[in-house]
Design a protein that fits this description.
360 residues; alpha+beta; 12 helices; 44% helix
Length: 360
Amino acid sequence: MQDENSRAEIWYNTPAQDQDVVVSTRVRLARNLASFPFPLNSKSDEFDRVQNIVFDAFSKFNHPDNYQIMALKNLDTNGEKILGERGLFDGTSGTGLITTLDGISACIVNDCDHVRISSFAPGLELEKAYERAEDIDNQMQQFVQFAASRDFGYLTSSVFNAGSGMKTSLRLHLPSLSFSGEIRDVVKQVYEKNYTFADCYGVGSFFNSALGAYYQVSSISSMAGSEIDQLASMSAVGKFICDLERKKRAEYADNKPTVVHNIVVRAYSLAKFTILLELRDCIDIISCLKWGLDLGFIAGVEDYELNSLLYRVQPGHLGYLLKTNDFNFEEDVENDAQLKENRLRAIILKSTVEKISFVS
């Protein structure tokens, strides 16, 4: 696992366009090897053969040293958590995983399909994410024959993944629309455009919606036109939601600055002075600080830094830090795993908050 301290090399800690609303972009390509049954109907020896073929293909890539290849059975529990927190593996199925060293692209083997290539980008960067996934796909096709037909395109275990085999998703921060209650109308409009809309971290209470007002918009079908058409459609949906959030944000800045300013001050105070911090509370605090930043109430920190905190404060990432670094915890914290996690989470958040200043 890559050193969490070298964050400059991690994709989610870099600036990109539309990061005030769009936290990240993901493009996923589903593929299956010809002459093999889909994973749901495969036997153990067929899983092994598919994995060996895929692993061998990656070893022949132009720059094979840029990839880390692993059998998931050899992955420890904390490593599995980190991969899940980064959206690379959900812990339910799959036998093998290949990731780029920067974690920006990954290929899981023997999941619902033989091969699922995922690529990520910060902000609204669909084309960049697609280009990286496409590069892996093109290189694989030099050594692997994928199942496809003239009528249906790529053949997959689900009809919704056939055709281009591509699914896209955006992770969004929508505090203004959530706080106002207008998020319900947004959900309806997104569904009418044939996209799904879900919370990222579960249901929250502060915004009367998703925890931290973080949501994910995802495409439903891979058969809605070419890859270019699908990318353009998702980009249009992303821009549409960005416009709605920014307009509502401007209304709060003009008409209710004291209300929102109070929310930001309270979040800042908690982040700066709290000693133990649970994950749910931390996500809400990060959300409120980001809202204050995008409203122009605070300065000294960037959107991408607050977005990266969403990964850095997760249990798996904290577990890696606890395993690879020495920390001097308080005596009553030292022997309690959950308290150490909560303590470290508070320390990490405070280190970011100390750079923040309020705009007069």
